[in-house]
Amino acid sequence: MLLSKPVSGGVADALLRQTPRLTIGLLLLPVGAGIFGTLAPALGWMPALGGSALTLDAFRSLIAWPGFWEALRLSLVTGIVSTALSLGLTLWLVASWQGTALFRTITRLLSPLLSVPHAAAAFGIAFLIAPSGWIARLFSPWATGWTRPPDLLIVQDPWGLTLILGLVAKETPFLLLMTLAALQQVDGNRSRILAESMGYGRVTAWMKTVLPLIYPQIRLPVYAVLAYGMSVVDMAVILGPTRPSPLAVQTVTWITDPDLSLRFQASAAASVLLFAVIAALIAWWLTEKLAARAGQRWVFAGARGARRVQASRGVALSLAATSSALVFLGMLGLALWSFTGLWRFPDVLPASYRLTTWEREGPVMFGTATDTVLLAGTSVALALVFVIGCLEAETRLKIRVHPASLLILYLPLLVPQIGFLPGLQTLAISFGVDGGFWVVVAAHLVFVLPYMFLSLADPWRALNPQYETVAAALGAGPNRSLFAIRLPLLLRPILTASAVGFAVSVGQYLPTLLIGGGRVETLTTEAVALASGGNRRIIGVYALAQMILPFVAFALALIVPTLLFRRRRGMAIS
Amino acid sequence: MKRLISALALSASLALPALAEPDPKDWDAVVAEARGQTVFWNAWGGDPRINDFIASVGDEIEERYGITLEHVKVSDTATAVTRVVSEKAAGRDEGGAVDLIWINGENFVSMKRNDLLFGPFAEDLPNWQYVDTEGKPAVLIDFTEPTDGLESPWAMAQLVFEYDAEMLPNPPRSAQELLEYAVENPGRVAFPQPPNYLGGTFLKQILYGVLDDPSVLQVPAETVDYDAVTAPLWAYLDELTPNLWRSGRAYPQNEPRLAQLLADGETDLSFALNPARASAAIADGELPESVRTYVFDEGTIGNASFVAIPYNASHKAAALVLANHLLDPATQARAQDPNVLGFQTVLNMEALSADQRAAFDALDLGIATLAPADRGVSLNEPHASWMVRIEEEWAARYGVAE
Fold it and tell me: Which of A171, B275, B357, B382 could in theory staple to A86 by disulfide, Cβ–Cβ 3.0 to 4.6 A?
């Protein structure tokens, strides 16, 4: 298809042509500089602390630390297992229930689930399942005989099972959201129905016809989940084991140790984590290849699927329900705590209620919330310009995105934050640009932009090009066709991407703290500082506030298109 | 929004050339220079009561000196130290982001040794005349490290144990009794996992309890037979650990989570470095009214909290005024009020006027707080080198799965 070049588009085209390059630079520069700032001290170079020779001492002392192998193993296992479980549950759920009324209900529960901050979800889950937690209280002492909490190791178990549970509860909704976005483009329902008419069971039909179309579109989100699970800090501090902790938590401990010489060891640990994430991603990718080959044989074998497989849809549903119930009940528990005076074991409900916590935190929180919205809104608006600019450049100028530059786009999501942010902070300080609003926006952009690209790119590319052809045939120039055809058609994914970006910005802790020099406060930096005090009442207040902002964003992303398109049946999600 | 604007204005002002360093001996000039400055005080933000107190101090110095106080709430003091290190690494020797740090112990030693502090200034502060340097020697010696005027004290701390008198009428009153109690009641005693500050303090407390001659702790660990001195500590912990909460397979990470265990009824004992913490927690409904505090017969570890100014702070004059204001008798009396903070004063009552003293005398201690006379001996912090080695060895012995 050839489009005639618009006469007036010269300047716009030149600008557009530069957008992808600019975007890549925007992401590559901070990450690259940050990684350098991490690797250099790991190899002994940090002049401020008297390190000026290249040595492997930092790695040697890291390996000599008795907990090293166990910490590394924990990071790998919790990351890989939680990703596999989250992905499995997501696919199983969609395969079993897509196209039903129940499925639409599930999708409506997504936004509140996604809005719960990781740390808050972890605190909530811990309060539910601890031996002195809500579930134990519900059954004590009448059923269990416990008048005092039993000494059981549930939260912070040495195998990391509780941490894996917390990660699955938070990552499944994210993968489900990404799968839904992908589903819109491939018309999965009809493929499945066709296969069902050939005698395939529902789950088998979906797995054989829709999954191969979907997976390539959700591959990068899966990688991001894997990298996140391996390097998560806030959830791991609350739910993860402590003897030793996963490597990322240990790295933070060393970075914040008063003994400054441990900075070298911390950098070495961050580098090891970096390489471990790369290795895990490669291993995952190889497994994909193998699974694809096996899957092909399975599809061609033509088995229609045992009835048992089809009956498993109830199991999928109950697993998903349990994991979301954990998050919801946990949040309910924290919400209750924010109004609580005394609440002792085994009381199911607090003995006294009070408003002190809200009165104390409320006024401060309002100002912080305003700043948070301003930061997130600015980051999302800027990111949207870059993302749409890149995609439009692709469409209009037929610039094919090179796989290498695609990888760069996802770099900030695949590189553990702890692996490059401390280095980036040093860079920002030496240019004297840290601590201001716009620098923090730029730092947020590094994370917001990829997530938004991730959510928007596939729907954008999958949009039927014939709309464009028809528009051109009717005399519309490329700009008109962008603003009158493509953007309105893609309103739903654009708003979803914006909501994702908004939530990502609101959730940023390390970038805000390190690049903002502690001078730019958001709900999250406040919440984490207060959470270090472990006071469930205050955590409840901040968790709710932190959750409301993204929740509103997600709700708008769902409601606005539904209202706008209420008379257009073809725009509804099925 | 106000904060954002000030952050924006600040990044612009960083480009200005630096002024000469303020001289605390010329106090009027310091106060004049401080007017209109914004001081960024990096202090742990995990306790709402402390945050409220800092906010009220901010209101006072705004009114009295025209200084704006921004409380940078850090989750760990070392975050602020890291910040200064990063700035030094990047060559920013002036215009730093941190003006004042709430600090003591290892963080202070580390900053002092790496020349990251401004001063000496403490003994030139006008309110220094009230500081009790004789009765509270910890205000001059921080973990056996002389402060050399590089940090100014603002609160005294002493380890006190907390328990529910209704559940546990006779709490263990020495390290030895604590061990016996744990063996008889497995799973009911916990301490935060070292290198957490309070967890480290617990190990030091036990070390005092098992040593015949604790004076050895006042000299660097390298100068004596470390293995022989600490052998009784490890023997003690080998017996205690399997009887700890969760059999020592998991530990609470910090003071608040240790306190939560007592509140949840998971343990019988908790401890804190703020003797009035339990009273304040009872007042806020976090602990039942039957909770009480006590100290060990052999005494408990005591130390002081300080504020220090980084060498590259942007607003040293305002930081000096704030450090001085924290020593103001009225501020100190308010900090000691258990309804506000319950931090013990660093001032000498004898040095105060009758009016100033009256404010302290009027304070109600709170239901669970020990009177100063009942707090027994305050044990000196060991030399910082002990803790470094003990934490390392603890991590190797108990800190990783066997």
Answer: A171
